[in-house]
């Protein structure tokens, strides 16, 4: 199985190394040199499968954000965000000027999304190539809305894709895009069946969410990953909490609560 990794997959074609796990998960990985995948520009058509895989590639590019966190730390969110109902967490609900998608109106700034962030986490800057700043309001590719992280616990991020690239149906639900099994397969392009530990379909305030947990020892976005997906308006949303094996024992409780709190 070939695993796509890194922000290189979002840029111009180039040869780069990809890891392939052995069937027995041996530590002896084999590397293959392949042609990088180039996502279409704003003027090029994007298929449903490409859009879903684009979300997966954005999630896999998290190592860049972790480096940014180490390079220049912002303030802990607990110092400026309001306290949440959950002890040790802060409420995050962006204003209309927070991100390119909100400023352009692609995401309704008056009724967007919200989630709880561990108060010790810090916001990580999102590069233009990932934020969609260069193509709003007509982005054909998925983008990263926001990222928060703690170098000892892990990271949470919100990824968004234009809904029209996933289904022609207006105001489609997540069920209109596909079953949870089909979306896990599309989002988790690097995952084998045994990597998916749990799947769940839930309705919260009349909106359907797909949720799954995976463990992939060689995952580029952290071995442990918790994901929740849904749709609203013109967008499909994918919220991801992730951590390495080293971070997981300390960060698991915070990461699970952040995922549980995500609403659109």
Write the layout of secondary structure elements.
Layout: E1 15-20, E2 30-35, H1 48-60, H2 62-71, E3 89-92, H3 100-104, E4 115-118, E5 122-124, H4 128-131, E6 143-150, E7 154-162, H5 174-177, H6 180-187, E8 196-204, E9 207-215, E10 224-232, E11 235-243, H7 248-261
Antiparallel strand pairs: 1-2, 3-4, 5-6, 6-7, 7-11, 8-9, 9-10, 10-11
Describe the structure in your own words.
This protein has one domain (45-261): Mog1/PsbP, alpha/beta/alpha sandwich (Protein Transport Mog1p, Chain A), CATH 3.40.1000.10. It is 22% helix and 29% strand. The protein has 7 helices and 11 strands. The strands form 3 sheets. Strands 5-6-7-11-10-9-8 form a 7-stranded antiparallel beta sheet. A two-stranded antiparallel sheet has the order 1-2.
Q: Total domains, how many?
A: 1
| Strand elements, count | 11
Q: Please, what is the CATH homologous superfamily?
A: Mog1/PsbP, alpha/beta/alpha sandwich
CATH architecture: 3-Layer(aba) Sandwich
In short:
By secondary structure, the chain is α+β, with helices and mostly antiparallel strands. 22% of the residues lie in helices and 29% in strands. The chain has one domain: 3-Layer(aba) Sandwich (Protein Transport Mog1p, Chain A).
Protein traits:
29% strand, alpha+beta, globular, seven-stranded antiparallel β-sheet, 264 residues, Protein Transport Mog1p, Chain A, 22% helix, disordered N terminus, 7 helices, two-stranded antiparallel sheet
């Amino acid at each position: 199985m070939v695993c796509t990794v890194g922000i290189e997959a979002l840029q111009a074609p180039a040869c780069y190394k990809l890891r392939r796990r052995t069937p027995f998960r041996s530590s002896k990985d084999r590397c293959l040199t392949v042609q990088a995948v180039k996502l279409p520009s704003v003027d090029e058509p994007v298929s449903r499968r490409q859009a879903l895989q684009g979300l997966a590639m954005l999630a896999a590019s998290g190592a860049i954000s972790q480096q940014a966190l180490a390079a220049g730390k912002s303030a802990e969110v607990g110092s400026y965000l309001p306290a949440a109902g959950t002890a040790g967490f802060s409420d995050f609900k962006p204003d209309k000027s927070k991100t390119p998608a909100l400023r352009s109106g692609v995401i309704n700034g008056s009724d967007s999304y919200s989630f709880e962030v561990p108060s010790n986490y810090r916001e990580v800057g999102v590069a233009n190539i990932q934020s969609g700043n260069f193509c709003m309001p007509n982005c054909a590719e998925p983008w990263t809305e926001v990222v928060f992280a703690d170098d000892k616990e892990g990271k949470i991020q919100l990824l968004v894709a234009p809904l029209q690239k996933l289904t022609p149906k207006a105001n489609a639900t997540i069920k209109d895009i596909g079953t949870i099994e089909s979306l896990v397969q599309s989002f988790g392009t690097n995952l084998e069946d045994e990597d998916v530990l749990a799947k769940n379909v839930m309705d919260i305030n009349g909106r359907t969410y797909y949720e799954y947990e995976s463990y992939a020892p060689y995952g580029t976005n952290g071995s442990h990953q918790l994901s929740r997906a849904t749709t609203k308006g013109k967008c499909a949303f994918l919220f991801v909490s992730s951590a390495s094996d080293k971070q997981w024992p300390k960060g698991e409780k915070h990461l699970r609560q952040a995922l549980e709190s995500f609403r659109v």
